[in-house]
Hints:
651 residues; mainly alpha; 3-stranded antiparallel sheet; 9% strand; globular; disordered N terminus
Amino acid sequence: xxxxxxxxxxxxxxxxxxxxxxxxxxxxxxxxxxxxxxxxxxxxxxxxxxxxxxxxxxxxxxxxxxxxxxxxxxxxxxxxxxxxxxxxxxxxxxxxxxxxxxxxxxxxxxxxxxxxxxxxxxxxxxxxxxxxxxxxxxxxxxxxxxxxxxxxxxxxxxxxxxxxxxxxxxxxxxxxxxxxxxxxxxxxxxxxxxxxxxxxxxxxxxxxxxxxxxxxxxxxxxxxxxxxxxxxxxxxxxxxxxxxxxxxxxxxxxxxxxxxxxxxxxxxxxxxxxxxxxxxxxxxxxxxxxxxxxxxxxxxxxxxxxxxxxxxxxxxxxxxxxxxxxxxxxxxxxxxxxxxxxxxxxxxxxxxxxxxxxxxxxxxxxxxxxxxxxxxxxxxxxxxxxxxxxxxxxxxxxxxxxxxxxxxxxxxxxxxxxxxxxxxxxxxxxxxxxxxxxxxxxxxxxxxxxxxxxxxxxxxxxxxxxxxxxxxxxxxxxxxxxxxxxxxxxxxxxxxxxxxxxxxxxxxxxxxxxxxxxxxxxxxxxxxxxxxxxxxxxxxxxxxxxxxxxxxxxxxxxxxxxxxxxxxxxxxxxxxxxxxxxxxxxxxxxxxxxxxxxxxxxxxxxxxxxxxxxxxxxxxxxxxxxxxxxxxxxxxxxxxxxxxxxxxxxx
Length: 651
């Protein structure tokens, strides 16, 4: 067969021009070629119709289409996360690793979304666990006392919910609105492990108290028996139980909490008891601790017990001025002051540290008498001229005049200033009187008491009869956190000034820890040309498990997220474990500068209420007992902020 018998693509004429294909092709061949052409047309049309990139004129897949594919993957499997392949050994060249596909040196937005989703899942599970624990503790579900507490109205449904305009259940409302009071673990494994260490410390302290001193006020962890300081009188009032309950609840120790709650219900009763108690200590530990448990759980038993105890304290206010005495016999109702306190004066840090508990108690019981007692105290204080604008530590309850001219941000003065600030915050910033008193007090105290050592350490000195004493108490170390907290709510220039001052004071208090052999701080430390941030006298060298330095670490961490505060807190944990932990609990030390310090054999109730709680929250998420929703009383019992926190439970 010659070439002329093969179907040609084209045929050349003598003039070298193409001859029409229709004239040369046979009929069958024309049909076959037509099918091929029709198929190509259909394929092209389908491609244009089904691929959005080609419909819009884009020849290659766009970046948006890649994102759309990723979104579809997320919908199909929300927890589907692709891991990067590990680097092979032969990928390492000259100390540098080759970059694999998808491996970038900037944050991957996919990873960030996955982390956010994981965080949300953890928080949801923790909130559900909280609700389940609340149901275990309370005899029946919490029913809000008014519409305003929940923002939901309607009728009760068979499933226990309330059907209203929003058609959602109370459980859904609680899950969306309740402040976080349990859970709150950090996403970082190292931080979670540190928090778990603190939790185990609480377990060790509580279990030994329950074993050797149940129902007593405090524990002697070496002697394995109960202990009671004079502030508790002669009775066994379970101070460690009441002080530690909210810490147990926050940490999730529900069995231990239930046992403590039952003890309070069955045994905490001051009727018929003849014992002399400290009005101040009973208020901050018992009234404050019980009100905190009421706010957190909604269990009305705690509110009724707080009311019962506070009513026993009221006769102490029956003075000519309304300034309460320091001590009261709860059996007879008679009260008095300490003889050593400036000729029988009342103490500023005691009568000035009742507003948070008494104002809240009036709001949750409907009894105005407690708020009235606080208002009377404030009016008496405001009437008195202050020497150089400062508040002396003593006030005579008969005359309403100041006693000895001793001014201190530490013992005898400390929490008065704290409660001015927190009364303003607790009122949702409506108590302008408390705010102005705080601002004025800090303006004068900072101007006259703040000093800087030769080594650059900032501290609050004390003033006695117009002369400075360059000594700072461990108790005064709370002021670092107080100033920083107050600064965040004040306007400039006070805002920046107070925050920076709070940081500087907290740094000084850390130095008092770091310059001791045990890495725990002394009861007081001094400044001179020869010494800085160290104790001189033997009665200043002890450490009784105090919380004030750690309290400022916690507050500064929450406000700044500067990692140094967590590092300093962990140093304190390690020091406590090394020097204060014993088989029977935790003990104080008699000399923090000794390599082998003598232990004092007392586990203070505030170690459970304050020191361990602040350490636990230091290593927790900011939402757990948020500073935006709670104020801590001076015993670290969280009380809700009015109009901000739905757990306020006011009547």
